[in-house]
Specification:
This protein is mainly α and about 160 residues long. The chain folds into two domains: about 1-85, no CATH class; about 90-160. Helix content is about 45%, strand content about 0%. It contains one helix and two strands; from the N terminus they run E-E-H. It has one helix at about 90-160, and strands at about 25, 50. The chain has a two-stranded antiparallel sheet.
């Protein structure tokens, strides 16, 4: 089969293109892919076509229009919006994909929690830094005062000597 986004040939049954990363929706037999006026492959059908995820067939290219290039640019309107979706033969795949969505959503939530924990830790560290900077400023004031005292004692010593 071929990726409808980048045109690369990919293994039959692929759910995602290994070249461009596009999630695939393959069109079932009987749907033609004529080249539109801009040279991009467009999918057209006179009737509602069945669309299934990772269908194991190559797109059928219309005999009436030559293919402009081996790499087809992305079609402006998402393919799945052009046709009715028939999931009757894909229930196992749909269930698997739904489970994958749940797994990825759980991972996203874990990452969001880690981000929040990291933000709280950063805020705590920033507070400690502010407190340390305040302490450093106070220590610098104390040092300046002690240096002034040393200078005064040295001045007294030089007067007495």
């Amino acid at each position: 089969m071929f990726c409808k986004n980048c045109g690369h040939e990919i293994p039959d049954g692929s759910v995602k293109c290994a070249f461009c990363g596009k999630v695939l929706i393959s069109v079932s037999q009987g749907v033609s892919n004529p080249v539109n006026q801009a040279g991009a492959r467009a999918v057209n059908s006179s009737s509602s076509a069945n669309v299934g995820y990772a269908a194991a067939q190559k797109p059928v290219v219309s005999e009436t229009a030559p293919v402009a290039s081996a790499v087809a640019p992305a079609v402006s309107e998402p393919e799945f919006q052009k046709y009715s979706i028939d999931n009757s033969g894909n229930s196992d795949l749909v269930n698997t994909l739904n489970k994958e969505i749940e797994r990825l959503s759980a991972e996203i939530n874990e990452y969001k929690e880690k981000i929040e924990e990291s933000r709280e830790e950063i805020e705590s560290l920033n507070q400690r830094i502010r407190e340390s900077n305040d302490n450093i400023a106070q220590y610098n004031i104390e040092i300046k005062g002690r240096e002034e005292q040393i200078a005064a004692v040295k001045n007294t010593i030089s007067v007495l000597a």
